[in-house]
Amino acid sequence: MLRINDLTAGYFPGVPTLAAVGLSAEKGQMISVLGANGAGKSTLLGAIFGIVPYVAGEISLAGTSLNGLKPHDVARRGVRLVPENRGTLPSLSVHENLLLGGLGLPKATVAERVERELQRFPRLRERFTQRAGMLSGGEQQMLAIARAMMAEPRLLLLDEPSQGLAPVIVEQIFGLLAELRGADIAIVLVEQDVGLSLEVSDYSYVLEKGRIKLHAPSADLVNNPYVREAFLGVA
Amino acid sequence: MLDVLIYGLLRGATFALVAFGFSLVLGVLNIVNITHGIFIIFGGLITYTLFSELGWPLPLAVVTASLATGALAGVLQKAFIERVHSANPLMVLVQTLGLAIVITSIFEKTWGTSERLINAIIPGYPIIQVGDFIVPTLEVVTFVIALASAGVLYLAMERTEFGRTVRACRDNPRSAALLGIDISGVYLKTMIVCGLWTGLAGALLITTQPLAPYMHLHWTIEAFLIVIIGGLGSMPGVLVGGLLYGIFNHLAYFYYPAFAPALIFSGLVVLLLVRPQGVFGLGAVIRK
Amino acid sequence: MSDAKRRASRAGIGRRRLLKSAAGSSALISAATYLPGLTLSTPAWAQKGVVKIGGSLPLSGSFEKVAALYRGGYDLWSKTVGNKMRVGDRELDVEWTIYDDEFNPARTAQLTERLISSDKVDLIVGTYGTDTVLAQGAIARRYKKLTIQAGAASARVDEEIGGTTTFTVVGAAAAYPRLAMEFIAKQNPKPKTIATITYDDAAYKEMTVEIKKLAAELGIKHVLDVELPINTQDLRPTVLRLMRAGAIDVVYSTGHDVPVIKLVQECQALQFSPKALFGGHLTTTPSVKQALKERLNYLYGVAMWLPQFPYKDPYFANCQAFANKHKELMGFEPTYHAAMAYTIPLLYETVLRDAPKDDPFNSEVMRKKLLALKGEQTIWGPVSFNDRGRITVAGLPVIQWQGQDPQVKVLYPDSMADGSAKYPTPAWSARG
């Protein structure tokens, strides 16, 4: 589904944050991208979405190139990003945020999917008419994911979904992610909690200083000495 | 006193109409658009030409002026503002000031430098008697149109998909783009909406106030003031701001004309001390 | 001083002669200021047979429009005299230098300096605006030059530079409403009350002071004065106050042309119709009629100048002939600005006709001659100056706009009248 080859990307010309990155994610697969702060994880997601200004290399979705597309065009090709700061629209209600998730779809479909997401996240039903800015962090994260799912994307990019959330909420959210896995969707997860990531994902890539250091099925990486030492804090 | 209040209220609705577009553009594009007053003048002078010179029926002239101003706003956005805006929104302030000066001189070549005013009455019912004072019927009609158009704009913003995309861009353009919203498209439409409503304001204004190209900056500032009074990012706030401004203006000029500007600005300063976010400002909800 | 020395030596004048020509304790300083005159052994007027006239106007900016009207007046004079001016027994070619002072006093001072020391103009005209006129006068005074100006009515000009450096052909503001008050008192039924609208500006306040004084003398009660900031947008509260003040027979509004438009607009909107409504001295500005159209009907005013006024000068038998020539050359009817500006070089021409042969542009000689003018006939009206260099005018003639396509009629004084008053003004609903 998603194919990235020899990707170099950065915010200033000649100063790549990412170099020679290659990865792929198939339909029904969840891959995770691991790395320390500043390794280039978010830049990778930004490059896919066309937010990063300097990009070279190939990014394609189901055989169509995404290179050079504006963010909204990438979104319209069935890609959704749940950004690090959740990206909910604070002055709009939960309902309106969800409606915008289904932008351009027939009204009936949108209504159906709103109902589906409310079933998936019952907390959002309680907050349905409130402004998104009034929600707690966990609720905002739920809203962000629900809103992304409104579009039934082919590719879902998640940037640090656990950040700043109470462990109970993290568990809840990752439980949901695990449910999403295996559907008609490719998921790229960028997450600091490496243990969790490896647990929920099929395949993982480790980024270091903008390059892919290693990649393997997630299950194999759990026991990889480098990963254990660098991320899991186990010698 | 009642008459002063009622006249102030009548004026205030048009003031609010002057400021809706300014508030919208300020909120969504995050720019102070100095060509705003140009839209007022353009709407007014187009109405003047169509009605007073070409003899069109007034309603048709007003609608056409509004549409023409919407088009002008769209052209300015697409041809000039968009490029500078994507580079640096603050630069738009300087850019639109330059545009306003250039357009003013084009207007002066087209319409001349003199003040224009439309003399129109509602045939058969020129005035309405309210107690012991009278109100020109046209001003009541203008008031109703101003309120109705405010209502339409409010519904368009709150109840339609277009309105949602506009508010999404106002809240967080980057997140909006991630949802598939074409931000520059929304900006263009926002500017056109601003032009439509502001052009309508100009068309209504010229029936009660003389307008000339050189007055554009006065109206830009007036719009800015009303937005500050009402509070950034709130459509009802702008309406209330406009009405309050109309009433306060009339009270100040009725009771203490010589000090009216000082009074009005002191009032504004006090208001901002008490409510820095304006009467209806969103303030706490949107953090940028 | 070193600059002066440099200039002096460049011009080939020995230092000794420079010092000798000066006297008194401030000799060196004044020597520097006299320099332009001294550096020329043969002045341009004698060398090339040219008289240089210079000045500045706010040719760009807010006053662009009015500056162009003044300039049109200067041009009209040049064309009328065929670009020649008789100075003493010689006929000299006229050469104009008009700079753009942008309505900026500092710039005006700089440009006046340049006119005098580098361009070496013989005569100075203009400019427009109190502060710019004062700036121009300050420099001219330093060089002992004269100016004739038409752009500032303020008494400050009289106090600071009037009569010594500057002559002013626009009348004192206090005189503007005099004839109007006389006229009002003669109407039947005689008005009992008057209210004034005064814009916050020295000249307008002077008018209101005069109106109050004359009202008392003429037995008309001054019941209300509404003082307004100069840029007042909305006249409705003002008209409301007039309506709430009880029976007001006459309303006299000072102020420029835009306030008149707003005032009449609001009077109509609220159906307020005093027996006489005076719109001040600028009701004849074209924009007023353009904006108000038939609503101008019945409005009174006072006029600085109109083509129907019975004045003449050596070139025009009457004001209409002047107006026709203006229209022919400029393409539009002249406003009072053109007549006023046209008269400035004409006055120089008048006093230079028998100028001394060796030093025709001697400021002191010209100054005395200007002060000595007694009712000199010009199309701007008879010209006499008081000792402060201000033109003396009895007052401004009273006019009324009349008809559905309103035209100006001169009503008063009787000697100038070409129509009669439609008094009292009917209610708005009865105006047809």
Q: What Rg of chain C, in angstroms, do the CA atoms define?
A: 24 Å
CATH architecture of the largest domain in chain C: 3-Layer(aba) Sandwich
Low-confidence stretches of chain B: 284-288
The CATH class of the largest domain in chain C turns out to be: Alpha Beta
Largest interface: B-C, 31 and 33 residues
Strand content of chain C: 15-25%
- Which structural class best describes the helix and strand composition of chain B? mainly alpha
Protein name (chain A): ABC transporter ATP-binding protein
Organism (chain A): Vineibacter terrae
GO molecular function (chain A): ATP binding; ATP hydrolysis activity; branched-chain amino acid transmembrane transporter activity
Family (chain A): Belongs to the ABC transporter superfamily.
Question: What's the topology here?
Answer:
The complex is a heterotrimer of chains A (235), B (288) and C (432).
Chain A: E1 2-10, E2 18-25, E3 30-35, H1 41-49, E4 54-61, E5 64-65, H2 71-76, E6 79-82, H3 94-101, H4 107-120, H5 122-126, H6 137-150, E7 155-159, H7 167-180, E8 186-190, H8 194-200, E9 203-208, E10 211-217, H9 218-221, H10 225-230
Parallel strand pairs in A: 3-8, 3-9, 6-7, 7-8
Antiparallel strand pairs in A: 1-2, 1-4, 4-5, 9-10
Helix pairs in contact in A: 3-6, 4-6
Chain B: H1 2-28, H2 36-53, H3 58-87, H4 89-111, E1 127-130, E2 133-136, H5 137-159, H6 161-171, H7 173-178, H8 183-205, H9 216-230, H10 235-255, H11 260-274
Antiparallel strand pairs in B: 1-2
Chain C: H1 2-10, H2 15-21, H3 27-39, H4 44-47, E1 50-57, H5 64-80, E2 84-87, E3 90-100, H6 105-117, E4 123-126, H7 130-142, E5 147-149, H8 155-160, E6 166-168, H9 178-185, E7 193-199, H10 202-218, E8 221-228, H11 236-244, E9 250-253, H12 257-269, E10 276-278, H13 286-292, E11 300-302, H14 319-330, H15 336-352, H16 363-372, E12 398-402, E13 407-412
Helix pairs in contact in C: 1-3, 5-15, 6-7, 9-10, 12-13
